[in-house]
Structures are given as structure tokens and as C-alpha cells.
Amino acid sequence: MNTQAPRRATWRDWTALAVMTLPLLMAATDMSVLFMALPAIAADLSPGSTQMLWVLHAGEFVGVSLALTMGWLGRRVGRRRLLMGGVAVYGLASLVAAFAPTPEVLIAMRALMGTAAATMSPSIFGLLRVVFTDARQFSVAVAVVMSSFSGGMALGPPLGGVLLAHFSWGAVFLINVPVAALLLLATPLLPAGRERVEGSMDLPSVALSMGAIIAVVFGLQEIADRSASGSDGAVWPYLLPVVAGLVLGALFVRRQLRLPEPLMDMRLFATPAFTVSLGALLLMLLGYGAADMLLVQYLQTALGLSPAETGALMVVPALASIVGGLGAPLLTRWMRPSAAMGGGLLVASVAGGALALMVGQVGVAALISAATVMALALGPLFTLGVNLIVVSAPVSRAGSAAAMSDVAGGLGGALSMALLGSMAAVVYRRGLDGAGLDGIPGPGLEAAGESVGGAVGVAEGLPADQSRQLLDAAFGAFTTAVQTGYGLGVALLAPTGLAVLWLLRRTRLDASEDVPEDREKAPEVA
């Protein structure tokens, strides 16, 4: 092990950190602002229901499937060069997306933006490992970068509300163009982060990783979508891409074990800090990702808040998440990472359970308070989980390790939307079907069963008594759906918190500032 003292960061290093926060801030803002723009996009481009799903998820699916590839590519071409190339493509794709004439063009640009976004996290965390060699300073740098992502998620709803109030939906993409230009001008402030990597990229590994992730997520999304919509079509054919994806994933793992320069170094999974943190991130986002979406819909439909009011309220839990993430390095000064991460998961599960019980019984302030406690408690898991994942790998593989956290986070979020979100939709539809709404015309009842927003639209064209009857039934069914979503989240968060407390009980961050290149030393102490 290298016995030299870690180099303390200079003002130039902290300036580089400030630059590195902007790409993730931009990408995160895009994710949350798009929810606000979907109704306007639907009204203008008239996409089908499947096309709307791909507008929403195409970028995420492509980005997750390419994350491992970008982690390897950054070592070969240079992390700064890869990052800025991604930023340039992101800006250009955003410009075209803003003026997309058809749903197909918009979906293609969203996929291209996802490809560009895949370059960001592996490049940024790879550069952070080069710049910040002191363990405590690295923890602070990770907290700042992860908080920039949370900040982007917080900024999206209110920014989207303002832009959509004064401009067309294309404005939510146009705002990326000046940010991308500013980042390109700041390129000289970043270190190059280039290494000598023997051999060329293993294209079969790229194909296997992309095929595995896209097939699994596509199959599960279609199964969930058809189950939620009550479609008469068979669901079982979509099990085939899921099975095919799992087979491709197994072939990918087998190939990685045989390659001298794999896309994903499977030996990292022998490190408990790496494996447990990766699993905790995936399960946390699986249990929590769809909950926010359900709460936003509940505030706008059942409680009648405007999009701007809802966006402003959701800033509060988002800011709490930033505080929780930034405070993580301070927490580890007097507790182990396992206590901060596992304890936070347990607190979040209690808050989620309380929120599930309160929905339909209390006002906005109590609901936002519970959501804020959840976000604050989960903040340290984002920061410390990514920190442990990255420092579990040698410096040269930090980008690839960060890519794995992207894959886990992307899969967790996407599967949460597809599975838990759709399960809540099934609960809503069954609740509405059992409400005895015999006087509502068949087509209107079918449209109301698609979503609570559809029920509100149908109610506007009905007589007053039928309108009230439909809205009462729809809001009651959706309240049960929200409770189901949070209840399922609690069922995942609580056991995950207990597992983290036990499995990482000996893990310390300050025991991992030097990981030899010849062996992925775990950040563990006896």
C-alpha cells in the first residue's frame, strides 16, 4: 500500500468540483421538469400511450444500458474528453428536441440525450478520485456532486411551471443549451483523467450489457403497463424479453470473468461495501421512486392543487434530500456509515408508513412534512452509498464503479415506475370498478379507469350529480392506490435498512483512501 500522505485539495480542485456539479444538475433538472411538460407535449404532438412511455423513459433506459460502456471508454479516451463530448451531444440533442415535429423525433432525441447522460457519472466520479485523494475531502466532494443531482430534481418542477406558463413545452429542453455551452467553455478547469488501457473495447460485452438491461426493463414495463390498463391482450409474451434479458445478463457476467480488461470487474462484488451499497441503492429507489410520482398526482387531483403549487411544495422534500446528502460527511465523524445509511432507511420507512396512513385523512402540510422526513433520512444513503461503491475500486476503475451505481439507480427508478407505479394503478382501477358507477357511460368509465387525471377530465363533461359521484369514487380509489404504493415502499425500505446495519457494521470510510491497483481492497476494518 502507498504510505504517502494524501494530497490536500487546492482552490483549483474545488473550482473543478464546481464545474463537475453542473452536468448532473442539468440532467437531473431534465428528469423532473419533463413530468411537468408531458401534458403539453401530449396536446401538441398527440403521441400514443406507448409513445408517451418512451418519451418519458427512452433516455433512462439507453443511459443505464450504456453506463458500463462509458465507464470503460473514459479510461481509454480520457474522462474529461468523454464528459465534454457527452455535454456537447446533450446540448445539441436538447436543441433538436425543443423543436421536434413528431413523437418519433422527440423519442430519438431523448434516447440520444440518454446516451450523452451515460458519460457523465462515470467521468465525474473517475475525475473526483484523481483530484481528491484525501478520504474526508473525497467524501465532501461526493456529497456536493450528489447534492447537485438532488438540487436538479428540486429545481425541475418550479422551473417547469414558470417556463410552461410563458413558453411552449420546447423551452424545458432549450434551457440545456446555454448550460452545455458554459460547461464547454470551462473545459480547461478539469483534469484530463486519461490512462493507458491495453486492448480494444470488447464489443460483444457492450452488446450483451445493453441487450440484457433493455430487454428486462422493456418486458417488465410492458407487463406492468398492460396489467395496470386492464388490457385484454395476453401478458405472458412479454415474459420472453425478460427471460432473454436474464440469459444475456448471465452470458455477460460469464464473459467478464474471462476478459483481462472487462467492462465490469466482477471481483468488486467480493467487497461487502460495494455489493451491499449497490443493492441498497437499487432497493431504496425501487421502493421510493414511484412514491413521489403518486404523491404529486394526489396533490394535483384529489387536493386540487395547480402544477405550480405542487412543484413549489415538492421543493421542500427535495431541499431536505440535499441537506441530508451534504450532512452525510459530518455524520460519519461520529457514527459508522452503516448507522447513517441503515438508520436513515429505517426512519424513512417509519415516515413512509405514517404518510400511507395519513393520505386521505390530513391536509397538505402534514403530507409534505412526512415526505420531507423521508427525503432527509434517505439523503445520506445516496452520498455514502456512492462513496463506498467508488472507493471500493482502485482509482483506475472508479469510473466503472460509478457506472455500476448508475445502473443500480437507473434500474431501481425505472422498475419502481414500471412495477410499483403500475401496481398502484391496478389498485386504482379495481377500486373504481367496484364503486358501482352504473350511470356513467361506458367510454367515459373506461377513460376514467386509465388514470385519476382521466377521471377528472370525464367528470367535467357529466351532469353535476354524476360528476360528483365519479370524482368521489376516483379520489377514494386513488387514495388507496397511494397508500398501497407507500406501503410497498415501506416493505422494501425497512428490511433493507436492517440488512445495511448488519452487513456494513464494520465498514469505515477513512479505512479506504488507498486501494491498490492489483487488488480491489475493501474499505473494511476488523
UniProtKB/TrEMBL annotation:
Annotated TM spans: 52-73, 82-101, 107-131, 138-155, 167-191, 203-223, 235-254, 266-291, 311-331, 343-368, 374-395, 407-428, 485-504
GO MF assignments: transmembrane transporter activity
Subcellular location: Cell membrane
Gene3D superfamilies on file: MFS general substrate transporter like domains (1.20.1250.20), Multidrug resistance protein D (1.20.1720.10)
Name used for this protein in its record: MFS transporter
SUPFAM superfamilies cross-referenced by the UniProt entry: MFS general substrate transporter
Listed Pfam families: MFS_1
One GO location term (cellular component): plasma membrane
